[in-house]
Amino acid sequence: MSTAVAPVDRLLYTPEEAAESLAIGRSTLYELMAAGVLNYIKLGRCRRIRRADLEAYVSSLVPPSS
Question: Listing from the earlier edge strand, what are the strands of the sheet with 12-13?
């Protein structure tokens, strides 16, 4: 008998995880970070994206006008 483990609500995402959660490519995510559109933090040599920054980015997207 197996029990399902509830997913952990992360506070920090790797660029790969953030790209997957946004359904975009990894290189696109790095371009957004380099352009300053998506904020990130550096922990040593690693980059991490806060969940709040991902949510802020998505909130800033404007749907196309019809």
Answer: 12-13, 46-50, 41-43
